[in-house]
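Recall that a protein's primary structure is simply its ordered list of amino acids. Everything else, from secondary elements to tertiary packing, is in principle encoded there. The following example makes that idea concrete.
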Amino acid sequence: MNSQVEKVLQMAQIDRGESKLRLTEVNLHEVISRAVENISLQVEPRQGTAKAVLSAQNPVFTGDLTHISNVINNLLDNANKYSPEAPVITVTATDQADGVRISVRDEGMGMSKEARKHIFDKFYRVHTGDLHDVKGFGLGLSYVKAIVDAHRGSVEVKSEPGKGSEFILFFPRQQGAGQTMLN
């Protein structure tokens, strides 16, 4: 419950332009390793796996460590929640020109084309059919998009029902001057 309330408060601050990025050097390999370690505690009792494939030669970029950690943890949490069977989650980090590409892939329930159109909208929740144990307010992915946008990055999703989902993030290594406000 506290986590959900925190998300509501963070989104309200972002919406009002009251939240600033605290830019430092962020090592995405370290962020991903910690996040995968944390989600493993939840997926292993369900006979699932979570692994990191960290192959970026330069995983460091300028960003807000707290928000970036929240983004990765949020995507891993969703991958776990929307995997009704034993979750299989893979996070990769690779180099791209001027930045780092992160992929969070699961083999869960996936989403329809219609759902993919709305998943970054505030309060949107993917219909889960008979699964009533997926909790949340539909703020996580709108938060992910807001944070990635604030870092002048990009986020896209590939997903099909029954075939899982893949969220692909790109973060440029350097932030432009004056890029400190979230909104």
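Residues 65-81 form the longest helix (17 residues). The beta strands are 19-20, 23-27, 49-54, 60-64, 88-96, 99-106, 154-160, 164-172, 181-182.
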